[in-house]
Amino acid sequence: MQVDGQANPATQIFGTQLRYLREQLGMAVSQVGDAVGNSPHTVNSWERGVRVPNPDAIRMLDELLQANGALIAAIEPLSSPLFPGKFREYAELETKVVSLYSYNPLAVPGLLQTEAYAHAAISASVPPLDDEEVNRLVAARIGRQELLTRKPQPVLGFVIEEAALRRPLGGKPILCEQLKRIVECAYMRNITIQVMPMDIDEHSGLEGPMILIRTHKGRDLVYIEGQAGGSWVSDPEQAAVIAQRHGRIQTQALRAAESITLIEQIAGDL
Predict the structure, then answer these.
(1) What is the pTM of this model?
(2) Percent of the chain with pLDDT over 70
(3) Domain 87-269 has CATH 3.40.30
(4) Residues 6+ apart with CB under 8 A from 101
(5) CB 78 within 8 A of CB 14
(6) Using an 8 Å Cβ cutoff, are 183 and 257 in contact?
(7) DSSP, res 110
């Protein structure tokens, strides 16, 4: 099953305009990225309409590309975010991480999801979303995955519960495709994937999911998602405890090679 995610129309129009102006000036994506302090992958995601530059970046782009205010005029229409709540701030920082480590107890993390799996997960939202909103959120989630192959490559680590890997969101064929995608990612040099086995008798992750990031400016941050949305852990002592907890989780999970073997076994049993 393939899902054709559709971005917000406003972001698509902005992206098309941005690409047109860049090409008219004969500028490469990398040149634009260097000028506004973002990676070529990020600029490409703007042009594709799956990410939105912040207002300061839009003003810089307007001057750089000699748009005479045309791009600045898009700031207000683009104010409807691709991502809800505080996740919008997280998604912006995510594009600039040097490293990212996450623990996911309930589902495959968004950065590793296939389009079909993402569609199934987002479609299960309560209250239910309409088709346009589901497709928009799927496109935004898949757009974030440019982080996996961005240069310079970030260091990424994922610990996923075995139960999450056995949960057939969208049906067994979609799960099988998803598991194969995880294995593909596990062989990438900058990515480590570990499985927390169901039969473990000591588990330090019972408090729930967590994401630890280090930004390009050397800031260490902790982001937590819950029923009421996401939140940043601002207290340094609390953040340190969560970092210690995540380190313990990594030691309790299967090693990378063992994890790949288990994921392949689960896929083979479907």
Answers:
(1) 0.73
(2) 92
(3) no
(4) 156, 157, 158, 159, 211, 212, 213, 246, 250
(5) yes
(6) no
(7) G
